[in-house]
What does this fold into?
Amino acid sequence: MTGWKDWAVGEVVTEADFQGFVQDQVVQVYADDSERTTALGANVTEGMFSYLTSTGSTEVYDGSDWVSVSSGGTGDITSVTAGTALTGGGTSGDVTLNVDLAEVSKATLVTDATTARTITSTDASKTILLTSGSATTITVNASTDFEVGARVDLIADGAGEVTVTADTATVAGAGTSTTSGSFTIGGQYSAATLLCVATDEYRLIGNIGVV
It folds into this structure.
C-alpha cells in the first residue's frame, strides 16, 4: 500500500498513484466473497478492505486471507458456561448478569460426623460443622494446599473435643507456631478459622488452645 498523499492543485494523477492511493484503499462493496474473488482475481493487496452485503461484515486482506474486522456492528462472547442467572442476549442484544451478592458471599456449609478429616484445597471457603460426639482430629498438611488468602471455618458442633493438628504444614495460633503440634478448639459450639498466609503456612484464629 502506498499510504496517503497530498496532491497539489493541477498535479497530474498517474495511473500508479490512482491505483495505489485511491483504488486499493477504498472499502469495496460486494454481495459475497465469491463476487469479490471474481472481481479482484489475483489483484489483492495487503490492507485492502471490503464490505460483504450478504453477511454485513467488513473484512481486511492480511496478506494471505480475508479476515473479519466486524460483524454487522455487533459483537459476541463465545465459550462461556452460564448458570441460571444469565439472562438476555441470545443471538443478539444485551446480556444481563443477575448476581445475588448474598449468595456470592455465603460459605458452603458442610456437616461432618466423622472423627478424622484432612483439610484439602476443596475445603477452601467452606464452613464445616464437626458433629461427632467423640474426639475429632483435623489435620493440616501439604495436601491442604490453600491459595494465599483462602480460609475454612471449623465449628465444634458436637460434644467431642476437636483438635487441629499440623503435619509438615506450618500452623500458628495462640502464641505458638508449629509443623507438628496441635491445637484444641474450645467447648461445644466454639469455632476457629484456618487462614492461609503463605504456601503451606496458616493461622488458626478463634477460641483455641495449644495442646
Remarks:
- The mean pLDDT is 87.
- The CA atoms of residues 34 and 116 lie 70 Å apart.
- The chain is about 10% helix and 35% strand.
